[in-house]
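Tokens in:
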């Protein structure tokens, strides 16, 4: 074909024609050419053509003098930075911390001095094992990292949603992480602990048993970041103005109470919405329904530490809340999403060693190792010692130092002196009064690679955790262990794990062994010290016991059809609204439905895109014809069957009964099915929803 060269850039012209702009009152109007800023290169030169490379004729060859193309592609080719080695997949938000009372008697940390004072905060939640593009509902620990921009420097509380950890000494961290990551020869499985390498390492590492109980519990599949606790894990120190020390453990308690999903649901959520947790946080903050946590502290002295059953410096142990009651000291509110994910969430650099004066470390060997590690990781990821110049990492208080130069220096220090002391009268000097001081702990010890004997009990708190769960939660732990170990190909690994479980709870070990087809129970693992069975249950460790007892912040999914009862829907929506929860409609097709009285209702989802796993409770408000039509659709039947199997409360209009039946759910199966046939029924349904799930149903559905 004969080619004609043309200089016309039609696409650009059309973009002008088609672009609408939002006015001040929110109205849309046609954009004018003058409304759009001129595209420039990174050097600021205006660009005439962003659609075509510079060529000798058409189609080419291309010319190397095309600096705009070269710069654009060069920059694109360098858009990625290394993902975090662990906690790669995460999501962050801005907010503030509000101090309740002055803690001046126990800490001189500036953030805890003045009641009512607000300190800016940035929080990043994450999974641990999966890569950046993995899914949100992996069975995994969640990172709960908080950066508090205090007036005396950044304080990073880099914690998890589980109060203990796998290992006692930082030197084992690469091993535990290698074991959980995809196996190196095959490059899978992604974001899963259900494989040989992980359970091989775990079953050879008895100190991980307490943590294993937590990650096999529903704590590892939270319903939302908003509904999980956070823990600083290690014991820290508070130091007051007299440098007196109080030990402290930090806990975040969610205002909306605890809630998790069930495993069968988690697997389906990952398919339906891999960004389930991200979207949840994004939507809650944009709706003005700000997530909130209370910061609590467990305070204790050396005398308590000496008398406690376990070593307070052992990060595989916790102090039950029934023994030291957490004291609320402030609240964290997340009220703003970052403008740009990369700029803030990806570049934020948390470091355990970021503590202001008044907060100090303990000798927990895991914490000591972390303090060493986090600086390396920032240099590797962000590429320059000047990563503190990036706005999300920079302190928001005045700062002065003589660190200079290096890649990407973003500040322009003025003056002659770049050292101190100096005679120029320039620059900052240290301040023994205001400055950070470490606790003056006397040390007289041999230099050796040691593990304290006081760290030797690996089973007692694992057992206490298991005994503190409701029967439902205990079953979930047994099911999770069975599932995970069923994915191990090596029978020795399975047996070795069962031998540990027998030290935690005999019935648990026997149940898991039975499900795994292990006919002869192995001998219990040989414990370093005998496990204790006298530790009382700690109700604070159960999720179900610590539910919100209301439906606030939760989501109702209503399956609707043409010809449905608009008034009933209205009443349902109003009651859910009143409860502080949200309603989303799911319709047979995009565009919504027309109710019996002729009102058009837009729907958020069409049935294939809105499965019931995305909701905390569901309702079926259908016409007779709608129910008959949907009964023939697999997606609609799954909607109902899954909601039932996941123990959710289900409301239904009388006309919807045939869909229930086709989905294998008897309309009067249990009290979790609420027929919306009288005016009080809506209120009764909302009342039920406050329990979140009807766990009593679980025995009947046998997930
Ligand atoms: Fe981390 N951890 N970690 N970790 N960790 C990282 O730092 C490390 C540990 C935690 O949202 C890395 O910036 C070592 C315990 C969170 O950006 C890295 C050890 C706890 C985050 C690192 C631990 C955590 C990280 C990777 C054993 C709970 C995500 C990227 C001594 C209390 C922060 C980065 C974010 C991130 C090292 C153990 C929590 C490699 C060596 C225990 C929440 O530096």
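Residues out:
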């Amino acid at each position: 074909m004969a080619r004609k060269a043309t200089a016309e850039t039609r696409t650009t012209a059309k973009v002008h024609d088609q672009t609408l702009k939002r006015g001040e009152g929110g109205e849309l109007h046609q954009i004018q050419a003058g409304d759009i800023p001129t595209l420039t290169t990174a050097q600021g030169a205006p660009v005439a053509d962003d659609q075509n490379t510079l060529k000798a004729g058409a189609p080419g060859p291309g010319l190397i003098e095309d600096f705009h193309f070269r710069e654009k592609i060069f920059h694109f080719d360098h858009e990625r930075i290394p993902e975090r080695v662990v906690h790669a997949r995460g999501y962050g938000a801005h907010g503030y911390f509000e101090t309740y009372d002055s803690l001046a008697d126990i800490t001189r940390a500036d953030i805890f001095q003045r009641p009512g004072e607000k300190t800016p905060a940035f929080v990043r939640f994450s999974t641990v094992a999966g890569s950046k593009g993995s899914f949100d509902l992996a069975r995994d620990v969640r990172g709960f990292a908080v950066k508090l921009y205090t007036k005396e420097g950044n304080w990073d509380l880099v914690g998890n949603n589980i109060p203990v950890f796998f290992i006692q000494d930082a030197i084992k961290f690469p091993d535990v992480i290698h074991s959980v990551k995809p196996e190196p020869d095959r490059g899978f499985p992604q974001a899963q602990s259900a494989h040989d390498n992980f359970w091989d390492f775990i079953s050879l590492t008895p100190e991980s048993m307490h943590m294993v109980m937590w990650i096999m519990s529903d704590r590892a599949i939270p319903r939302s970041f908003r509904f999980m606790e956070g823990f600083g894990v290690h014991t820290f120190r508070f130091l007051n103005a007299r440098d007196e020390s109080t030990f402290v453990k930090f806990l975040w308690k969610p205002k909306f109470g605890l809630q998790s999903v069930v495993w069968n649901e988690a697997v389906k959520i990952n398919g339906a919405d891999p960004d389930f947790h991200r979207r949840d946080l994004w939507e809650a903050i944009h709706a003005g329904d700000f997530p909130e946590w209370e910061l609590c502290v467990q305070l204790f002295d050396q005398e308590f530490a000496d008398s406690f059953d376990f070593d307070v410096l052992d990060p595989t142990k916790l102090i039950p809340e029934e023994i030291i009651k957490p004291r609320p000291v402030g609240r964290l509110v997340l009220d703003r999403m970052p403008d740009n994910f990369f700029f803030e969430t990806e570049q934020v650099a948390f470091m355990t060693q970021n503590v202001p004066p008044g907060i100090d470390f303990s000798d927990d060997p895991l914490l000591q190792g972390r303090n060493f590690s986090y600086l390396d990781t920032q240099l590797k990821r962000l590429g320059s010692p000047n990563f503190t110049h990036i706005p999300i990492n920079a302190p928001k208080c005045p700062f002065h130092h003589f660190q200079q130069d290096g890649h990407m220096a973003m500040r322009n220090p003025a003056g002659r002196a770049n050292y101190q002391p100096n005679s120029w009268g320039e620059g900052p000097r240290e301040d023994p009064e205001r400055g950070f001081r470490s606790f003056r702990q006397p040390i007289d010890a041999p230099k050796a690679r040691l593990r304290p004997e006081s760290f030797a009990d690996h089973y007692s708190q694992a057992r206490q955790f298991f005994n503190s769960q409701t029967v439902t939660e205990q079953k979930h732990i047994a099911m999770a262990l069975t599932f995970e170990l069923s994915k191990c190909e090596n029978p020795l690994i399975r047996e070795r794990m069962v031998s540990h479980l027998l030290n935690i709870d005999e019935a648990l070990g026997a149940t898991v062994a039975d499900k795994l087809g292990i006919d002869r129970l192995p001998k219990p693992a040989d414990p370093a010290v005998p496990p204790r069975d006298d530790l009382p249950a700690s109700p604070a460790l159960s999720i179900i016991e610590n539910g919100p007892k209301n439906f606030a912040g939760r989501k109702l999914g209503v399956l609707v059809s043409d010809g449905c009862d608009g008034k009933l829907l209205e009443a349902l929506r109003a009651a859910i609204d009143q409860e502080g929860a949200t309603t989303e409609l799911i319709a047979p097709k995009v565009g919504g439905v027309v109710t019996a009285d002729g009102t058009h209702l837009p729907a958020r989802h069409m049935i294939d895109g809105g499965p019931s796993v995305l909701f905390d409770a569901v309702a079926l408000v259908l016409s007779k014809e709608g129910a008959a039509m949907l009964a023939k659709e697999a997606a609609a039947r799954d909607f109902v069957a899954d909601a039932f199997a996941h123990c959710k409360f289900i409301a239904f209009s009388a006309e919807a009964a045939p869909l229930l039946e086709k989905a294998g759910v008897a309309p009067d199966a249990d009290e979790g099915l609420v027929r919306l046939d009288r005016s009080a029924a809506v209120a009764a349904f909302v009342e039920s929803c406050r329990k979140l799930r009807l766990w009593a149903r679980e025995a009947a559905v046998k997930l």
